[in-house]
Specification:
The protein is 65% helix and 0% strand. It has 5 helices and no strands.
């Protein structure tokens, strides 16, 4: 239950404006496992001002899983790791 609450908190942070630091976000993403980095790379360009980050990450993760580029077994964990870096953007 704690993990679900923490996951929702990270995804909720994507929906709120933050100080943009793309360089820090990219440094963070460089350290991500392959699946998480794929989600980050698919989601980052779509995170423009006013975009719903949670929806973007969810949709991109779903697309990557359905295309076989991200394992469905690691998708949730990978999306959360990607979100940790995406909130820095």
């Amino acid at each position: 239950m704690k993990r679900v609450v923490a996951s929702l908190a990270v995804l909720a942070a994507l929906a709120t404006p933050a100080l943009a630091d793309a360089a820090a976000a990219n440094r963070c993403a460089a350290k991500l496992p392959e699946d998480a980095r794929a989600i980050y790379n698919a989601s980052a360009p779509l995170l423009v001002k006013g975009a719903d980050g949670r929806t973007i990450v969810t949709e991109q993760t779903r697309k990557l899983v359905l295309s076989g580029k991200v394992s469905h077994l690691s998708a949730n964990t990978a999306a959360m790791a990607a979100a940790d870096c995406l909130v820095l953007r």
